[in-house]
Amino acid sequence: MKIGLEVHVALPTKSKLFCSCSMDDAEPNTNICPICTGFPGSKPMLNSAAAESGFSIANALHCKINRNMSFVRKVYFYPDLPKCYQITQMGGAVGSEGYLDIQGKRIGIRRVQIEEDPAQIVRDGMLTLLDFNRSGTPLVEIVTEPDITDEGELRSFIANLRSILYYLGVDINREIKADLNISISDVRVEVKNVTGIKSLIEAARYEIARQHRVLEEGKAIAKETRGYNEKRRITESLREKETDEEYGYVYEPDLTVFDISGMKPAEPVYANEIAEQLAEDSDVNAKTIREMTMLDRHALELIVRFRPKYKMRSIIHAIQRFKKYGKAEVPPPQVIEKLIRLVEDGKEVTKETVASFEEGKDVSIEYAKLGAVQLDKLIKRFLDENPRMVAEYKKRSKTINLIIGRIAKENGLHPKEVAGRVTRLLAGY
Amino acid sequence: MASHIKEFLGAEKPGDYYSALVEQLKKANGEYHAFNQIDGSVADANNAVPFSSKANICVKGFETTAGSKMLQGYVPPFNATVIERMLGDDRFTFIGETGMDEFGFGTFGTNTEVPAKNAFDSGYAAGGSSSGAAVATALLKYHVALSESTGGSISTPAALNGVVGFTPTYGSVSRYGLIDYASSLDKIGVMARSGEDIRIVFDAVRGRDDYDTTCAVQDIRDEKKKKLFVIEELNQYSDKRIHSHFERLLDTLGEKYEIATKSIGVLGSAVESYYIIAMAEASTNLAKYNGYKYGLQHIEPNARYNEFFTEARANFGVEAKRRIILGTFIRSESVKSRYYTKALSVRSMIIKEMGKVLKEGFIISPTLPVTTPRVSDVKKLTPVQEYAMDIFTVPPSLGGFPHITFPYQYTDGMPIGAQLVGGQANDYAVIDFATEWESEFDYKYKHNIGSL
After folding, report:
1. ipTM above 0.85, yes or no
2. Per-domain residue ranges for chain A?
3. Which pTM does this prediction carry?
4. pLDDT in tens, B186-209
């Protein structure tokens, strides 16, 4: 079986690919200008941030980089395409002949090309509406070789691609749009416009099973283009495909050849490879580390930096929780070391721990050293010195919180750490 | 000949100069159809030289049709960069849009609903596709025309109307706001009554523009040459009359320049390559005029797909249809390598070979291989015969080299033009060649509307 993919992802730029219109969400047809609506006389101008982003993706996928990249016009009539041609890349694409290693296998990348998204078609009853806010959105299309041979590899490929793109600042979970080429015999069937990772896997699974079924029934698989019906979770025939589509490509003469040799691609991060290395001197296996880090930059940073040997997952979660509660972007190393110790002692990191860290009183750590005997001594002394509070408690048990709070505060302890022992010891008064 | 711009700006003018000018021009335009629209507000101008723009250059708030029924009612919401620069220059004031062959598709100006007429004799062809620009320049004494050439659309009408027509180096003047014919060949240029005026306008509009990334040539050179080359492969196409006139021109020029014949074999394929590239690009540029967002929209929206397109696209003229159909064919996968790809490589060779020759000297030729044809004779030409008239203007167009046409002879009351081509970015030297020619040769005009 052979599966090839054409994956489209939107690039995280502030403005569109060929004009300065904003990419922010807005009322329909408000982020538009003569360029992205194709007014006669308008010309495209390349957004260098998009070029750089495309370059980074091609570089991360080990492509040969076309230092002099150029564009072509793909001509077809459709209402969402105001110029009636899409500006995209072919031979002059930013990247070609690359690869992506998934666990144990190399998947070829034929091409990475930068292109513009058409407008959005919105069906409203009898009406077909067009929103040109989307027209000119910068996309990258990643075209693979048909090297994927089963669903497992497809999942793995998508997971790895998603991780690489994530580390380049592109989130593809919902935005991913892909065309699948699946052939289990020598007939290629294209499943077009599948949106979202979940649908992509489902569509592939359905289509593989369908083709097997057709063959088992002794029939021939038709060369055709199919679509994926998300509701019914099946692929459906759109059209028979006797010949390849005719797009009449010409060079895009409104854009020059772009020399991108002055640009610097973003450093790629291969979380799966790093996970393998990390697993070597850890009690945690590579799979666990992958799960934790492929879509989590902070987790990866922390693991690489501190290499905790035990309870890695809990430690990372603790540190992340600390970051969530705390104000500091990255906790200082001494804090992290204490956090690690906390977790190793079987303690939870809470909002309060973080608060005490921020006030500079890391007594929680002292408490860990203090031990139960010392704590009890401390509590007893307080109760002995404050008989009125004890009496109050005997009348209204709710006031225990006041006692816990005072003890915690006076001794710089965490209320939670104190609470259990206070309740126990109060019973003796 | 001195600069008309400078002369005009320094001269005393009667208080009603501009209103009188508009009135006279409107009257003349009724006969010659140089202008599609005259901007009445020019009557309020104050000491500025009127400039016109070809109807494919967008003027904000001004119907800009590129000579096509398809674009009737298209009022651009923005100015082309060249218009923006001219409007921002207080030496100039906008006077109106000049007529042209539909989308620039024509050598003689006849491919439009109301063709302009030759300013010397209205029975003769005005030349195209910037026909209106050339006729306007031949009618108005003080005026400059922003025009545009893809494969000779400035040189040809300028020559037939006896004005100076300059096509700059590709990429030296922004095309933003130009309604495209063939984007890799389209160049906005200038027509005027003297080389000096052309240089003034060229400097006013040229230079970097963020809105046109192909506008990348900024350093314009002024390398004077001593040698003039006549290209063997091209010269043989001149008819006898043109040949003998041109020989005499060479005799005159021979007093100052060294004249030599050169062979550039690849130029034998120039016209074919030009039309292949131009049509391929044009068919994509014109795809947007389909009645969806652009193009005449009076079609029943519930019509079936094929009916909708057939009806919408029927609004193109015959020549536009021909170029769209041929261009679409040329681009198709099965024949692309035989036509489009081959034409692109011929073009690269032309750029290289001509570039070498132009380092040594200028290339000189007649502008057209024939004398001005009558309108009735133009109508008898087959498309291929008409395309062949571009033999001299196509090579510099394919190479993107600057060229200028200037009148050098008047025969039977009609002007005859010659064309000089210079190397890439050597525009000043090319313009100055015409200025130098003017110091010894007086241009003649039949009309001098607005003279002081």
Report:
1. yes
2. 2-259, 270-360, 366-429
3. 0.87
4. 999 999 999 999 999 999 999 999
